[in-house]
Each structure stands twice: as C-alpha cells, then as structure tokens.
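User: what does the whole thing look like in 3D?
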Amino acid sequence: KAGVTQTPRYLIKTRGQQVTLSCSPISGHRSVSWYQQTPGQGLQFLFEYFSETQRNKGNFPGRFSGRQFSNSRSEMNVSTLELGDSALYLCASSRLQGTEQYFGPGTRLTVT
Amino acid sequence: GESVGLHLPTLSVQEGDNSIINCAYSNSASDYFIWYKQESGKGPQFIIDIRSNMDKRQGQRVTVLLNKTVKHLSLQIAATQPGDSAVYFCAETENTGGFKTIFGAGTRLFVKA
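Assistant: Here's the predicted 3D structure for the full assembly of 225 residues, as structure tokens:
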C-alpha cells in the first residue's frame, strides 16, 4: 500500500506570494491533518479534515487555509507569505478520526 | 501556533541497553496518546499508541506507560539499537468534535555502538 505523498517536496517563494501544497493520503484513509514543523516551535497542528469538512483548526492566522476533496486528497494554502512561514509542512492521514496517523515526507517551504 | 515546550532534550544510551523517554502532556481531557519517531529528512513514523482507559501497552521492543494522575507518558525501548537513533515525539489528542493532536517538543536519542 502506498504511503502518504506530498507535492512538491521543496519550494522557494518570495514574501507576499501565495503557495498551495498538496497531500494524497493512504488509500482508504479519510482523515487528513496538516502540521507545521520548525526548529524553534516544533510540530504544530494546523488543521484536520474529515469527509471534506474542516473539523478542527490550530492557532494559525487566517492566511493558512485548506480543503479536502471527495477522494480525501487535501490541499493547504498560505497567502501573503512571510519569512516566518519557512518550515517543513507535514501532512498525515488516518483511517478514521482519532486513530494513528501516518505522515508524508513533508514539503520544505523556504520564503525569501 | 500551539506547541508543548521548546527545549529538545537529548538521551544518549549504549547499544543493547534499555531506553526510557519521558513526556509530560498538558491536557487532562486528552484521551489518545501516540509516540512517533522522526529520522532526519523524513516525516514522523508511528511507533505505538495508547488510549486513556489503559495504563500500559506493549509492542515489539517498545512499551508505553500512561500515568493520568500526573499527566505523564513514557516510551521504553528494549535492547536499543543504532537504528533507533532519532527524535522521538509524544503526542496527545483530544476529541473536541474534531481531533486536535498536540506534539511534545521531542527527545533526541543517540545510540552509541
């Protein structure tokens, strides 16, 4: 069974631009969560999607948004990028809400 | 954004010894706990989980202990191997209608050959 895939793996953007990251969960998994990982703040929860609905959201500004499609694939978008948005963005899928999550390799975003 | 701690402690053990990694969680309403292992350049990898109605769960070479009274979680790795060298994260999940998972700061494990 294929694991969680994330595209792109690496991305360089300029301040003020916007970016869209994509996540394909493990087949049959319906819950997708997104996390931001930085050396200073560690792993921080962004949001969780289940059945195309955002079920929970972390304490991030409205510039961070996401969505989930009917095939459970998910995208997250960051608008008006800031230098502090440079991070590894991780997507995790689980078969159901509240069960073990399986992570993708992440998208490394660098904002210059 | 939320996080549990900023300091990344380090644990160094000899190959073959047992390792114990500790974690203090923050939310008494959390009902599901997970340990993850993250190697350099990779996403976190699920190791073992435990629900709040249990206090111990064993896997292959790993045991998780949960003490809800003091909000403490530990991961025990038996016969630690060089391949166990990684950063280990504990995570707590609360069901608030949606599920929100909060990760600890992580502990770096070094295994000396």
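In plain terms: Chain B touches chain A through 31 residues (CB under 8 Å). The CA atoms of residues 42 and 86 of chain B lie 10 Å apart.
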